[in-house]
Each structure stands twice: as structure tokens, then as C-alpha cells.
Amino acid sequence: GTLYLDIYRTDGFGHSIQSSDGSVHVGMRNRFARFSAAEYGGEGMNFNSFEFLFFLPVVIGLYWLLPFKARKYWLLAASYFFYMYWNPILILLLIFSTAVDYFCSWGMENNRHNKFLMKILLMTSICMNLGLLFTFKYADFFGETVNLFCEGIGIGYRVPALNLILPVGISFYTFQTMGYTIDVYRGDYHAERDPVTFALYV
What we know:
Strand content: 5-15%
Radius of gyration: 22 Å
Number of strands: 4
Helix content: 55-70%
Number of helices: 6
Order of helices and strands: EEEEHHHHHH
């Protein structure tokens, strides 16, 4: 059957409580969020899985069979498929982060004479990337901290939990692309003109 987890909000210490139906309650008082593993896209393609043992030879084989100019498109498509195997919708975040930093870095490259515009583009990249990272990785932690503080001083206000899925590798590609735009801003590297090549880098 489907594996279910009940998230029970207590004092933030995450005490496990067994319910009558056999589900496990973990942490945080007075609110339940029920979800199944299937809703989160399954286990993904592990490196030791039969799916990956089939996937890797196909990718490598077609890479060498394709014309040189088509290889990068194949690699990008295979990379996106691999990332989407766990949860397809999360690829939108990766594409969004890639697009933001591609256009910001390209805008800085073409406007070296305009330091103000370069700073605006750099701050856009940083705010977008850190905003995504904070929202998906730390928003609920921050909200629960606020809730505990309000409860401690007798205020009834509570920040609602977002219960967002944590995208695979979001910390890696966030700092990867953000570091790239900072290097372009400093003039350490020229901005990559080809969006496919840049997407492969990410």
C-alpha cells in the first residue's frame, strides 16, 4: 500500500507518536499534514537501481552515435529526464534558476559600462536564488520559530506551514548559478552565450 506520514505539531522537538491506524506522528502541535510517498514522486532513479543501469548505457551510447553538434542537446534532455524522474514539476525551479542567471549574466556582459545596471542584475540573481532556497528549505523552520516565539509571549498569531517539497539539489544549483553570476560581475569570466551550454553547466 501507500506509505503515509502524519506530521503532528508539538513543541518542535519532533517526538514520534504512534496513532491507532499505525501511522507515525512527528513533531508540531495542533495541525496535521497527511501525504503519501507517491505524491512526492517516489524514490527517483538511484545509481544502484535497474532503471539507472539501463539509463546510463543508453545515454552514453546515443551520445557517441549522434553528430557532435547534437550531443549537448541530448545530454541536456537526458539530464532533465534524470532530474524529473523523482518529481517532474520540480524541473521548473531548475529551469527558472537557470534562465534568471543566464539573462542576468548576459545582461552584465553587455553592459560593462553601466555599473548601476550591473549591480541591479547581480542583486536580481542573488535575491531570486536565495529567495527560492529560503522558501523551499527554511520557510517552515522560520515560521515555526516565529510561532514558538509568539506562543511564548502569549500572542495567538501563527504562521501557516507551507509544507513544500524540498527539491533535490536545490542548494547545489542555487549556489552554482549564483556563484557564476558573481564571477561574471567581477569580470573573472565572460558570460556564456549559448543557453544550452549554460544549462548543462548548471
